[in-house]
Amino acid sequence: MGYGLGIFLLAVGLILALAVTDSLSNVDLTMVGWILAAAGVLVVVLTAATTASRRRSTAVTQYSDGSRVVTERNDPPPAV
Fold it and tell me: What tens digit of pLDDT does each residue of 7-60 get?
């Protein structure tokens, strides 16, 4: 899913909310558009948050004398 789904929902929602003037019986297309746009924004934000949390990794090194070292690192973003 990811960014593509979020952008698709956002685009379809904004088109319905701002550009479509037709109406269906008992269906408010403007409200449906705003709901889809909000869902698209939510998907983009959640995708960004989960992607950022996956880039952080932790490594634990155990030495023979019993000491431990915990190392955290942030991986660079993937090349596009």
Answer: 999 999 999 999 988 888 888 899 999 999 999 999 999 999 888 766 666 778
Query: CA geometry: angle at 31 spanning 46 and 37, to 5°?
Result: 25
CA distance 20 to 29: 8
Side-chain half-sphere exposure of 38, counting CA atoms within 13 A: 6
| C-alpha span between 65 and 26 (Å, rounded) | 73
Q: What is the dihedral of CA 52, 80, 42, 32, to 10 degrees?
A: -170
Locate 70 and state its tokens. 């915990």
pTM metric for this prediction: 0.65
